[in-house]
């Protein structure tokens, strides 16, 4: 993971009203504007919403009446789908006072040619350092925004990918620390691909990190074809146990070791099933 310094850029400005109001500024690192569709400010009960920035502004400035306010970010989605909204903070606005909120950002460095057509979603979840925060972007026709830099409140995060036809998201990065006004970069440069084996049809497979009990990823084929069983998978380095699930009477295979090296793409050809007695 790498971090880069904060850069201020000009953004949309909306000034509303006058008198004994307070001022709120929301700043995000400039590179995070790529995934930001809007910044909203509202009361904690969701009323009195105002949009203080839109179309990728990295700085939002607004005047408003004193009181508690919730900051909501709208993350862009593809194909004209509405933004995915997540509340990032609640602040107190005082009369004739100036409140500044500085967000950090999470960027991704993804190895060229590693992502495949099996990406169904990406999740960014805060695991420490603040109130619950979870962002999930889903495939809305393409994955253009999945790995764009994302403005986030400071804290510790994990990143997970939801794969097509899988039972649960798969964690690809943990302990990612995002600091206010900084950009933290997560590198995703390793993974694996399972080659289609001969023998009875494979209905699905699962991989489990050695030393753990729950599958890291479990996928099943479509009813009419093998998708997405033989697609590339972004996965953190480590040793996994691979188990195939074939049609009866073959059933589940014995576990096979699959080793993912840092910065590498492991290609695994499963063993042929044992002959029937």
Tell me about this structure.
It is a single chain. The protein contains no helices and 22 strands. By secondary structure, the chain is an all-beta fold. Helices cover 0% and strands 49% of the residues. The strands form six sheets. Strands 1-15-9-12 form a four-stranded mixed beta sheet, with no helix packed on it. It has a four-stranded antiparallel beta sheet with strand order 4-3-6-7, with no helix packed on it. A hairpin with a 7-residue loop joins strand 17 and strand 18. The chain folds into three domains: 2-103, Immunoglobulin-like (Sandwich), CATH 2.60.40; 106-188, Immunoglobulin-like; 191-268, Immunoglobulin-like (Sandwich), CATH 2.60.40.
Number of strands: 22
The major pleated sheet works out as: 4 strands, mixed
Radius of gyration, in Å, reads 23 Å
Look at the helices and sheets and give the structural class.
Answer: mainly beta
CATH topology of the largest domain: Immunoglobulin-like
Strand composition percent: over 45%
Number of spatially distinct domains? 3
Shape: elongated
Average pLDDT works out at 91
Distance between the termini: 52 Å
Strand neighbour order, sheet with most strands: 1-15-9-12
Q: Assembly type of the shown chains?
A: single chain
Corresponding CATH architecture of the largest domain: Sandwich
Query: Would you state the CATH class of the largest domain?
Result: Mainly Beta
Helical content band: under 10%
Low-confidence spans? 2-18
The ordered H/E elements are EEEEEEEEEEEEEEEEEEEEEE
Number of distinct helices: 0
